[in-house]
Design a protein that fits this description.
about 290 residues, alpha/beta, seven-stranded mixed beta sheet, two-stranded antiparallel ribbon, 9 strands, elongated
């Protein structure tokens, strides 16, 4: 059996061998706790016929655990300095392919079609760099990839916002955007002490299970997201104030906005954080004709 990469001793030895120094700008924090990695992989519920996409494999600690439990792993790594290290640490695993690209700029659909043909069950499993967590998750969902879901580690505060429910202070346009596509749950809290270098905050693992259909059916997805963002533009403001100030020609169309709220049975004095996904769906459909 190969020695696990994710131990403090082995991690230090690998970093020293290659003279690797961490780049703050890339949000590099490597996990040095094998048990936590195994738990993360278990949340993804993979088997020998599954595929896994990883983003930011680092020195291969999570990649290794994924390679042992799935048929194929494809990992996107942006930092060229890590490529020779990964070639070395992952040499025992022929079922791993490292792609030297920024996932935000990559044609993930094309990679998916090429790498996972014949594999029906694919999960994204990643310890995401904190500074680009949200754009990466949104890209994976908006690209409509045929994945079963995403299990990822991110800042606890962002995880709280993603899985938040209406009526809480964490609930916002990010909660809605992600819960529109997936069922979101925080499955584990990870202390900062199990990383090197140690980040300033604790992390959390979230599991996003893709819905067969979006949570609500709307006339226009882009407009739906525009409405949710507008309603949270200034959290302390009422729906009416936010919508009139944020929507194009909103001030001139105040009466139309009031009429739409009225039809939906939504009090204009409510705040964005009190509305459910269904209410936002109804509201965006009612407002749509006035703004198109």
């Amino acid at each position: 059996m190969n020695k696990d990469i994710a131990t403090p001793v082995r991690t230090r030895a690998i970093l020293e061998k290659y003279g690797f120094s961490f780049k703050k700008s890339l949000g590099q924090n490597f996990l040095i706790d094998t048990n936590i990695l195994k738990k993360i992989v278990s949340f993804a519920d993979l088997n020998e016929n599954s595929g896994a996409i990883e983003i930011g494999p680092g020195i291969g600690a999570l990649t290794e655990q994924l390679a042992r439990t799935s048929k194929k792993v494809v990992a996107f790594e942006i930092d060229q300095r890590l490529l020779p290290i990964l070639k070395d640490t992952l040499s025992p695993y022929p079922n791993v392919n490292i792609i030297h690209k920024d996932v935000l700029e990559a044609d993930v659909q094309a990679v998916f079609a090429e790498e996972f043909s014949g594999i029906d069950d694919v999960m994204v499993v990643a310890n995401l760099p904190y500074y680009v967590t949200t754009p990466i998750i949104m890209k994976l969902l908006e690209d409509k990839l045929p994945i079963r879901g995403i299990v990822c580690m991110l800042q606890k505060e962002v995880a709280d916002r993603i899985s938040a429910r209406p009526g809480t202070k964490e609930y916002g346009s990010l909660s809605i955007a992600i819960q529109y596509y997936t069922e979101a749950e925080t499955v584990m809290i990870v202390p900062k002490t199990v990383f090197v270098p140690q980040p300033n905050v604790d992390s959390a693992v979230i599991r996003l299970t893709k819905r067969e259909q979006p949570a609500v059916t709307v006339k226009d997805e882009d407009f739906f997201f525009q409405i949710t963002k507008s309603c949270f533009a200034q959290r302390r403001k009422t729906l009416l104030n936010n919508l009139t100030s944020q929507l194009p020609e909103g001030k001139q169309k105040k009466e139309d906005i009031l009429a739409a709220l009225n039809v939906c049975g939504i009090e204009p004095s409510r705040r964005g954080e009190t509305l459910s996904l269904e209410e936002f769906g109804r509201l965006s459909d009612e407002l749509y004709p006035y703004f198109h």
